[in-house]
Amino acid sequence: MAATLRPPGPKSSGLFSNAQAFRSDPLGFLMSCTRDYGDIAYMKFGRQDIFLLNHPDLVKDVLVTHQRTFHKGHGRTRNKAVLGEGILASQDEDHHHQRRLVQPAFHRARIANYAAMMSAYSTRLGERWRPGETRDVEREMLRLSLTIIAKALFDVDIETEATELRDALDEMKSLPNQLLHRRTSPFVKLLDQLPLASNRRFLEARAHFDEAIYRIIAERRKSREDRGDMLSMLLNLGSSPDYGDEKGEERSDQQVHDEVISILLAGHGMIAQALTWSWYLLASNQEAEESFHLEVDAVLRGAVASLDDLPRLTYTRMMLSEAMRLYPPFWLYHRLAMAPYAVQNYSVPKGSGILISSYTLQRDARFFPDPNRFDPRRWAGQSGDKRPKFSYFPFGAGSRQCVGEPFAWMEGLIVMTTLAQRWRLSLVPDHAIEPYPGLMLRPRDGMRMTVSKRETGAGTPHL
């Protein structure tokens, strides 16, 4: 018998009441839906059918097994205003093609060359801190991560070179959360075209950013110099069997530009938020903080973190895993059903929206006992192997799984351990920490923390 039923879900008191409830408190709305209605909840956002899925098997069905049946949601069109036609916004064969072109930039042999640079920039940040001062750790991690990805991508130091790129990106990244938060508004198309100050500032910042990117691309094409960075790979200026690169098609300036934006925005924002929440959780849990510092001291022994140290930083990896479980940077995945689809006994009409939240699923007690507790040791040994694979997916899943995941892990381990050799961070009293689910999950009012000195670390490595 064909599936025709509708799952249970929140009733709508008006055409846009569910959409407004979601916009007002996305995390609370999603958590209440999964609590009250189980693995599948149905609702209306305006006139659109929306299905919220909250089980690992359903995540696998949508993001992996039947991924070609589902496209990225309505936000994709508006995301293109930020990301262009890069890998994050493309679909189907275009996405497969772009992923194949970008993949070599994140080959293990290539990103291994960035370890010393990550340690150097992390050390340099730590040397600017002073005991007893208060820092917005989110801002610090965003700036550090941007500096790292810009060096890996362009072989430039945006603190001293290409400063116009840094300034334009600073303005751009403050606006996507505002612009993309309009997704569920019934007036989104109108809002996007009105002469609003936010729209004007974004367009101006984007123009400055584009100008800087195209200038760098033009200079590199003219010099034909392979500088061992990601841009050289994207421009096909050199190839090496050690990196798995192959000489291939010539990419247009537009193609390279769009991939650069995707790598810059997603590449630095994701790991910066993971680092920010890690510092917060460590400061809130003395036992975890002590275990973390013990490992840092035992493994590094005052030396600069290197690529060879990473396999021995087991507790640090568990801690980062747990931070991304509780506060996944990519907290919501939106898909559109491109054909009718059956989920268990329920019929999903073509054009329906599918919502999958890593935030709700990764706080599900069926898969993570005492789910709201920060417990890095839940990842020890074979514990993680006992859970369904798609109960935890901080980097996405399927063909759209983050291509830069190895780079992000290396950066996370190196930044945390390098800074922790010299510093301990504590929460500022009365500074409320509230997750804000924008483009990524971030603290609404930043992360103000007090810096305390632990001990003198190693000197600054060569950049």
Short recap of the structure:
By secondary structure, the protein is α+β, with helices and mostly antiparallel strands. It is built from 18 helices and twelve strands.
Structure description:
This protein has 463 residues and is α+β, with helices and mostly antiparallel strands. The protein is 47% helix and 11% strand. It has 18 helices and twelve strands. It has helices spanning 17-24, 26-37, 56-65, 75-83, 92-102, 108-111, 115-128, 137-154, 163-173, 176-180, 188-193, 197-223, 230-234, 253-283, 286-300, 314-326, 358-361, 405-420, and strands at 40-45, 48-53, 70-72, 134-136, 333-337, 341-343, 346-348, 353-356, 423-427, 435-437, 441-443, 448-453. The strands form four sheets. It has a five-stranded mixed β-sheet, sandwiched between helices. Strands 4-12-9 form a three-stranded antiparallel β-sheet. α1 (17-24) crosses α2 (26-37), α9 (163-173) packs antiparallel against α12 (197-223) and α12 packs across α14 (253-283). The protein is globular and about 60 Å long. Residues 175-187 and 240-246 have low confidence and may be disordered.
